[in-house]
Amino acid sequence: MSDNFKRYMTFTKSERIAMISIVAIIVIILIYKYLLIKNPPKRTAYFHNLDSIVASRQAEIDSLIKIDSIKKHERRRSFSKKSEKQKTGHDFYHKTENKKTKFPDRSDSVQKQTFAKEKTIPIIDINTADTTLLKELPGIGSSFAKRIVEYRGKLGGFVEKEQLLEVYGMDSARYGNIENHMTVDSIFTPDKLRINYDSFKVLNRHPYLEYEDVKKIVNYREQKGLITSWEQFKNLTVKELNQRLEYYLDFE
Q1: What is the model's pLDDT at position 23?
Q2: Model confidence, pTM
């Protein structure tokens, strides 16, 4: 039995090396675990809290803003001191000059009186004036001058100054400013509509005729013949006519 026990407890060289290696590995593992428990790794070196990072960045930004604000304040103070020095020197110069001046300078008042003279506004014939001349009237700019000329063309000319109140945008206040600076030649004859011969399109273009009125006029011409008078013409229309229309009709 003792021989058998010795045989089992006897190891070859390679088996002893293997056993020693295993024991060494076990010892190393135990030592590592012991050290790991005693000195755990500092995880904060690898895992950062997002809030702390943001707070740190914000603190840096606030610091930079504060520094920039201080620099701006210093620049403003420096500029203010410089301006104050210049103002002081400027005031001193003017005080010195005023002491040397015996009489006040009246050149400015003379110039103001010269430019204060009222501009002379011509009397304008509203049937012959172009846009440039119409703009000489008070309160009449490029837009209104163009509207007056366009309306005059559609109308056939103005027979009365008051017809300017029919121009789009013209009110009584604006008209009152220009009324005394306008005239209509007493011998002026407007362009007239040939009520018995002009086409539907031509008649319908006139500002004083409505679409329905033109239809009645054309139908009457085709069915019954010529329109010979203003009274006959008025009976054909649907609505009450502008009395000035009579100046623009030719019944021949």
Answers
A1: 86
A2: 0.53
